[in-house]
């Protein structure tokens, strides 16, 4: 009898330790954001390239850039020539993507939380807006939130 109980406990213990296959996570929103995430990583990599062809094809011709301190819109060429460091934050791989869908467009907010000693809250958000138009992503705005 004791041996049967020991055997049963041993079998149950071994079965409970067996690695079970994990079920796929039902996160359609995360899967829907994968192409945006892949594009943003390609965009960040292209910032290190000497050629601006890829970047210019994915930045709107003129855009608003609050942290650029220009006070108005600037051209995509001016953005790359004068404000390239803004496009590549120190925390380049730590960001969140938030979709915002309207009747005509889907806008994606790429949000970085940046540490800032001079800021009242100790951080600020640097946000890049991407629109999906004509089968491609376009950077349309860059702004900060205190």
Q: Tell me, what is the CATH class? A: Alpha Beta
H/E topology pattern: HHHEEHHEEEE
What oligomeric state do these chains adopt?
Answer: single chain
Return residue spans where pLDDT drops below 50 for at least 5 consecutive residues.
Answer: 4-28
Report the major sheet: 6 strands, mixed
Describe what is shown at a glance:
It contains five helices and six strands, in the order H-H-H-E-E-H-H-E-E-E-E. The chain is an alpha+beta fold. The protein has a six-stranded mixed beta sheet with strand order 2-1-6-5-4-3.
Please give a structural write-up.
With 146 residues, the chain is α+β, with helices and mostly antiparallel strands. The N and C termini lie far apart (71 Å). About 17% of the residues have low confidence.
Highlighted features:
146 residues, 32% strand, 5 helices, alpha+beta, Nuclear Transport Factor 2, Chain: A, 6 strands, globular, six-stranded mixed beta sheet
Which helices and strands, and how do they pair?
Elements: H1 2-17, H2 28-46, H3 53-57, E1 59-65, E2 73-75, H4 76-82, H5 84-87, E3 96-101, E4 106-115, E5 123-133, E6 136-145
Parallel strand pairs: 1-6
Antiparallel strand pairs: 1-2, 3-4, 4-5, 5-6
């Amino acid at each position: 009898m004791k041996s049967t109980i020991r055997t049963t406990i041993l079998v149950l213990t071994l079965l409970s330790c067996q690695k079970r296959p994990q079920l796929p996570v039902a996160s359609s929103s995360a899967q829907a954001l994968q192409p945006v995430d892949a594009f943003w990583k390609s965009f960040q990599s292209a910032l290190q390239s000497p050629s601006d062809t890829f970047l210019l094809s994915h930045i709107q011709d003129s855009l608003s850039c609050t942290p650029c301190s220009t006070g108005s819109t600037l051209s995509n060429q001016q953005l790359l020539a004068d404000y390239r460091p803004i496009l590549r934050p120190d925390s380049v791989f730590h960001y969140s993507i938030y979709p915002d869908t309207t009747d005509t467009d889907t806008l994606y907010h790429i949000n970085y939380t940046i540490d800032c000693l001079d800021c009242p809250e100790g951080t600020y958000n640097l946000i890049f807006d991407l629109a999906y138009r004509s089968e491609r992503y376009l950077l349309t705005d860059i702004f900060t939130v205190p």
